[in-house]
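Model: Ready when you are.
Researcher: Fold this.
Model:
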Amino acid sequence: MVGFCIFAAAQCLSALKEQKQGLRRFEFTEPYMGTMFKIVLYASDESSALEASRVAFNRIAGLDHIMSDYQPSSELMRLSELAGGPPTRISDDLYGVMSAGQEIAQKSDGAFDITIGPVVRLWRRARRQHELPESARLAQALELVGHQKLRLDAKARTAQLLKPGMLLDLGGIAKGYAADETLRVLKGYGIDRALVAAGGDIAVGEPPPDMEGNGWTIAVASLDSPAQRPNRYVALHNAGISTSGDLEQHVEINGTRYSHIVDPKSGRAITGRVSVTVIAPDDTTADALATAVCVLGLERGLKLIQSIPETRALICQAKNSELQCSDWHFPATRDQSHDSPIVRMEQVSQRFPGL
């Protein structure tokens, strides 16, 4: 899980600077996509902040209606109902998020796959009933999964699901896309100093006035002690950060812990404790990559991350009662520049003792 914080000490030191710039801090929260979306922004006055946030939340609501697999009337579900038929023209938003998903599917060798819907449905029932999916039904569902079975036409803006019964699931990318789009809406209102948090997904724009040259301070919860104060922080601007894992969504069946994240190739929910936090230039990419790395595991996941520019990951997994974590693998030079979205990673409590 990732969280965000602007430390009180920094705020006190910078109050004068905010006043000089004529900017004030505002926060707004509303529920969408099965989680709470929180917008933190800096604007010159309350009316401007209210207007921009209202339009931003309307944008999120519209995306929810397009991409939800819980709403039978959503554009995504209507497209799934046409599985096995001819190419279907879809909206720019649905095409954009599906295209991004297909790109990550190819880069991850299918570890991320938006055609995973039939298998995810079985595992949702498994978590509710506390019983594993039947092997025969799982095998049938797997026949409908595979990113190669989804065809997109960029010129015609069409999508085609090649086999009847296919079902799309954007749960591993939709919130990241919505967070990115929220930032874009706010920028259209002249608000570029903003943060959008949607559960484990966070998109950030320019840093707050008090953090000029640095970034928004994001806290990453520990896998071994999630209730305690985080000891890992990263300062970001114009980037996305996403955490996936089984910390909040899992079920234990017959003594084995199963995550809500499913391997598209085996059809099995991943087991054991795992947490992956990915930083990328945008939250759409970070969201999808975090899921893919959870499936791939530590070694293969790091290889994927290292193959994609401007992307970093912290991977933690519990094995034999021991916690193993990767390094963020920050390069020594680029991340010290304001041109890089990743400004620094350190224990902020050392800078502000007693907080």
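Researcher: Now this one.
Model:
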Amino acid sequence: MSKKMKAAILDGFHQDFHWEDDVEIADPRANEIQVKIVSCGLCHTERAEQVNLWGLGLPFPIVLGHEGAGKVVQVGPGVTKFKVGDKVAMSTPWCGTCAACSSGQQWACEHVDDLEIRGVDYYGTPGPLSRNGKPVYTFFNQSALAEYSTIHINNCTKLPDDFDLRIAGPLGCGFRTGAGSIYNVVKPKLNDWVIITGTGAVGFGALWTAKAMGAKVVMVDILQNRLDIAMELGADAALNSKGMTADEMGEALNDITGGGAQGMAECTGQGICYKGGMKALKMGGRCASVAFINELNFEYFTTECQDCKNVQFIRMGNVEGDTIIPIMAELYKRGMFPFDKLIKFYHFTELEQAMEDAHTGVTIKPVLLWDMD
């Protein structure tokens, strides 16, 4: 069985999204649930895929959206993890059978490319969406730019019954990535200094997680208004690095931290931020490389920035969604993860405007809603 719904379709690279109300969505099969979408966060990924920035290739037509949240309205045969009425946050897929998944490293799933960007579902088919009898491909196996999502249970994490679904979507990607990079990679100790470069959702997720773990945090960016927000929301120090060389940035960070930091999360993908932060990282320190970076050169092994320093490249925070999403939800309830302060709501049909506002920095975290009341 299936039903028709509204969804935002992308027919090719460098094209606009168009909303259609006749997209067919199939009922859930074994190990699947159907979710009525309440909210969907937007990050850099949707625009990057729209313009083929990363050259990853997508099948078309496709429905994007990878930070969905909503309420379970159907469960497939044999599903016990969820029941109708449960609130869920939707995140990245993982097969559950490869070596990485079997060892508890679901974020490193060997089949993630097929499940995320090739439009293939867990059954090896194009997925639950179609229009006029032809497949419409899914993204992240969720395609949350729609009214409903039929999704595998591996993609979903149950939220507390009293959690506000209007703000829940962004927990599935950006905030998860930043939080996980600190929680599972940098692992700061009490009173350690952590450098965080970048004040987007990923950087703020890293900030609040580091603070919750007892660390001191210096935020780095070239946008003073973002740094002011970071100071208001928990940062111990802030550095406006506009116009600085990597050496100057390193010197300033060493001064701020009193001789260097024990940890770092690089959330910009800019080589100068990478090198400037690493110059202030103590020997034995850990750097979580979170953002895409195209090229980075170190000239001298011992005098530049990589001698006896650990760098780990991050995917989805290098942490399971079922681990970090409940932690973020609990910290939010305690007032320690105030991510709602960064959110601006848009109606789903304002998708293009929300993406533009995120791209230009007008909005830190746009979230789409079906019901604006």
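Researcher: Key takeaway?
Model: The two ends are 32 Å apart (CA to CA).
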